[in-house]
Write the structure tokens for this entry.
Amino acid sequence: MTGFTLPTSRPVTQAWGAEFDDWDGDGVVDYPGGFYHSIGWDGHNGIDYGCFVGDPVEAVADGVVTFAGDAGNWHAILSGGGNAILIEHPEYGVQTEYLHLSEWLVQAGDTVRRGQVIARSGKTGAATAAHLHLGMLKIRGYNLADRWRGRIDPTPYLYGSLNPDYAAAAVGPQGTITSQSEEDDMGILDEPITREGGGPLNGKPTTLRAVVANFDANVHYTREAIKGTVAATVTALLTTKISRAGGATGQTDLLSTLAYLDANLDKLDAKQILDPSAVQAAVSAAADAALKDITITLSNAPGAAAEGAK
Ligand SMILES: [Zn+2]
């Protein structure tokens, strides 16, 4: 029993049981009562992850591949899923499906391990954009005609005590259980709650567990986004055009100015006119004086032009 893992590190974009009524996101209700209800389902019957085409997709648990290929419109379970994989996990009595893949990297009959890369994500089959749909059915006793099309909620398996990453989070740092009843906690996690505060899912039911899972995935995403923004800001600052107010002509940027100061420091030092620390002090003073009257124009902020620095 090695437990479960997530099929990708991408964020959850549609949780189990989610419903939506605006097909194209234009703010107009296309399906009063919800899209899934309009086709006889009770809601989204799996978990969607915001993958791009080509992201690695991992098996969520040890198992045996029972199908890998194009499910077309003929496969009893996977029909409409495009390039798809079905894996049985006998230890847990369930099977998992991975839909809309760009390619499959395993074959029917293969034994796979938890976390093994089995496919690349894509947008094949009934998908309007690239994403990974992860679904779960029992191995026996599922009913493809029910209002989930035979699927069960994978959330407790992927984000519960069967996933070592999340099982650790359910206890305190010292390994102590953080509440009197872990079972009560688990129950609260799965109580239906309603989203409020705007956004496309406003008013839609979900669970704390789904929200936490989504948040966890988004933290990673946000961290990467912040790193990108900081790098872009530094680059923008260094390449911002500046002009000298004291009569000197032409524009330059901070990066060129720093390079110029650096080059001239070396030149003075080589001539040995002054000792290095005096040169440094002189250049420093010159730089201070030059910067004192400098006018900075933020080229990427048209409304904030020509603000005096210092
Ligand atoms: Zn889906």
Q: What stands out?
A: The chain has two domains: 12-174, 241-308. Residues 14, 44, 46, 48, 133 surround zinc ion (CB under 6 Å). The domain at 12-174 is CATH 2.70.70.10 (Glucose Permease (Domain IIA)). The longest helix spans residues 208-238.
